[in-house]
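task queued by scheduler; priority normal; single chain, no ligands, no partner chains; default sampling; output format set to structure tokens
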Amino acid sequence: MLTRIDHVMICVPDLDRGIETYSRIGFDIHPGGVHTGKGTHNAISFNEDDYLELLAVPDRGEYLRNSPYGGLLEFIEAGGGLRYVILQSEDLAADVAAMRIRGVDVGDAIEGARRTPAGQELRWRAAMLGERNPLPLFFIQHLTPVAKRRRQVPAAGSHPNGVLRVERVYIAVTDLAASAADYMRVLGAPPKFERGTVINADMAVFGLGPTGLTLAQPFGPGPTADALARRGPGPFQILYRTSGMDGAARCMVDHGLPPPARGVRNTGEQAMLVVPADACGVYIGFVGPA
């Protein structure tokens, strides 16, 4: 069973600059280590149960020889940004089997590992969609318990911007009905249709535990239309729940960023957005109490 959004992968040309950027937004983020044999390394910002991953390619030759992330170099050279939404599974082999029954092209669950700078080995199983289902998703089952995974950063879930957890991730599409059908085949459950008043888009929201995977088709100017114009269909925004909107905004201003623009969601809550120019090509949203 797919249980939640596990993490998001933001691909950047330079990891140190990416860390600096997300530190300015108020995330407590640290180098995560090297993906052995893949030519990539990352940085991690851990929340309550999910995390943000920045990924870069320090060894181009090693990446080209042996990497699961096809097209990554081209993606980064085009500006980088939000590349994948990774969904957590309780039993990945069973979820892969269920997807195949629904006609989904998905690979086998393959074991992976990463060693942190402190020497901790983290292990998982992961599966990726095949060429017939080219969606920006892949799937993970952690073999390292969450309590141990949280130890890879000094104070997991303690961010100056007050972020607690990921609320939703948004994927821009040009045909909401057709895309919803594609994602429903992969995810095995129907979405709820809503209208997004901050991003000016009609939405199909797939509930995954406490998180939502949201397809968005613009009905007017706004972040979704901007994302489609800049990069075409694909993930473009992460919405985080924070313990305090005003505190998050002050944190960013104190680090030299402009105050994030605010709007009102269809739920009646206020939300604010950090624009892609200040977040490595991604819209970063915040929602929560004042």
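post-processing summary
- The chain has two domains: 2-152, 163-287.
- The longest strand covers residues 2-11.
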